[in-house]
Amino acid sequence: MAAMTIIERTEPATTADERTSLEGWLEYHRATLAVKCQGLTDEQLRVRAVPSSELTLLGLTRHMAEVERFWFQEITLGQEVPDLYCSREDPDGDFHVTEADGYAEAEAARQEAIARAREIGAARPLDSVSEGRHPRSGEGFDLRWVYTHMIEEYARHNGHADLLRELIDGVTGE
């Protein structure tokens, strides 16, 4: 069974400045994904939503580790960081989990990426434009946009996580 650490989520402030609000919502959604995975075995975390999909809670955890690294390290700082699970040959490798893949490693990678993202965010103004550019569009992004996108990315995938968790053991709720 997965290690049983009780995940605490802090509700975002209802009245706050822009940075506090953006960071509060991002932290809330980061914690929500961990809550959805809490108490499940690696086998349960590899359960697919439907047979035709590779969507799993473990895959979502791996995906969000990649996304954190991409938006904060590659785009915001312009650093080249190697993919953890994806490759040119397998761009969706984060979702292609096997029996050998486990949650502890994936969540550790996500937490490491989150810690680095927090450092990067804290060191930059919200209106600072990224050093890196999007590989397809060539666009730069201000930190405000990156925070907003990350909130959207987590919120969308947390909706998937809700459905997966309900499928696995019937647990519902935020």
Task: Break the fold down into its secondary structure elements and pairings.
Blueprint lengths: L17 H20 L4 H4 L11 H20 L26 H20 L20 H27 L5
Helix pairs in contact: 1-3, 1-5, 3-4, 3-5
How would you sum up this structure, described in words?
The chain is mostly helical. It has a single domain (22-93, 101-169), classed as Up-down Bundle (Four Helix Bundle (Hemerythrin (Met), subunit A)). The chain contains 5 helices and no strands. Helix 1 packs antiparallel against helix 3 (57-76), helix 1 packs parallel to helix 5 (143-169) and helix 3 (57-76) runs parallel beside helix 4. The longest helix is centred in the C-terminal third of the chain and has 27 residues, at 143-169. It is globular and about 45 Å long.
